[in-house]
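Hey,

Quick one before I head out. I ran the complex with coenzyme A overnight. Inputs first:
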Amino acid sequence: MAVTAAAEAAFAKGLEGVIGGQTAVCSIEQDKLIYRGYEIHDLAEHATFEEVSFLLLEGHKPSRDELLRFKAEIIAERPIPAAVVTFLESAAGWLASGRAVPMDVLRTAVSILGHADPDCQNNGKDANLRKAKRLLAKIPTIVGHMQNLIDGRGYVGREWGGDPTLSHAANLLYMMTGQQPTVDEARVMDVSLILYAEHEFNASTFTTRVIAGTLSDMHGAVAGGIAALKGPLHGGANEMAMEMLKEIFKDVGDAGIGTDKVDEWMEKAFASKRKLMGFGHRVYKNGDHRAGILHKLGKANAKHKSGQFGGLAATRWFDLGEQVQRIMLTKKNIHPNVDFPCGMTYFTMNIPVPQYTPIFVASRITGWTAHIMEQHADNRLIRPLSIYTGPAEHKWIG
Ligand code: COA
């Protein structure tokens, strides 16, 4: 395709700085993150994840009655179809062998949810909203059941999708561990879900919009979103950030934290041009608003923890993380993103590392489905151009 000179001049690798569409769901600025008119610090301090989910999906702050109805609908939709349970059981071997990771299994499970959903092929406004609520309700149950299989325990709350008296966040923790979380832990999880819920035209949301833009269905778009989120440059960074901290701890030991040993480790990483996970952001250049909120909460929660987490006291992980952050800022002028404190926070809540990104999905499903609905409501196929860099035209002879 012939590309005009103006289009060629506007080319930006990775679409950096390119406006890919319009949205009323979220606004990202250097100094603010806004969900439908509400600033993220305000939401993290005063709202619950259920309220934020309603805000994103329905477009406005819920009234008391609307919230009650919404919560009841979500709780009623928590159980997952038998076909999904059967699939999870069949995937247990792949998980155990490492051939599949939880994000892969979740992606397939969401596809199966589509087959079982009576509205699957209906992209109408009401059907889309029903599907969005079902996905929001069922994804934590999939994550919980998957962890039960990995740990070799019976399904927690198979019939009910957990415990109907628990909040979304508390129920997610309960299903994954079989233990009722403390009020503090439930709140930390709730806030992390609020922070992860929506982030404008990030890679996975853009993926869901591209798929929805062909007038394909919501479950297909969400499966694509999960595949995009899995990557370590995107959502997978929360798992990789924790793996990196574990690696530093293994090399420097408890006694090395706070000493030059960590600086030396970082210098080696810089020298090898290694990307440090949980740092940097395509849009935020002065820091990610969400990182400070989660770091503060996670650290406060760690202070109440006794015992060892991967061989280190909970607060020491934050000491190490803060030292790494200081070095990154001083030497590279790069700030942590939300995935960095997420790693330490979830680790010191005893959440298995391979489930960090699936938990991200349990939250971002709200943002994705809000965007899919927005795309379907005012659609235009998303189809950019490319600059051809292949060989010149040849004749195919013989
Ligand atoms: N560790 C080390 N260096 C980093 C870095 C990181 N995490 N993030 C950015 N940089 C460096 C780059 O190497 C580059 O340096 P150079 O100009 O000397 O080549 C410079 O900062 C600009 O980075 P760039 O990769 O062009 O930024 P981007 O906008 O394309 O990438 C990310 C943004 C998120 C992909 C990138 O910061 C990254 O890979 N981070 C780690 C993964 C992560 O945490 N992802 C979650 C994002 S919420």
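The longest helix spans residues 125-151.

Talk tomorrow,
K.
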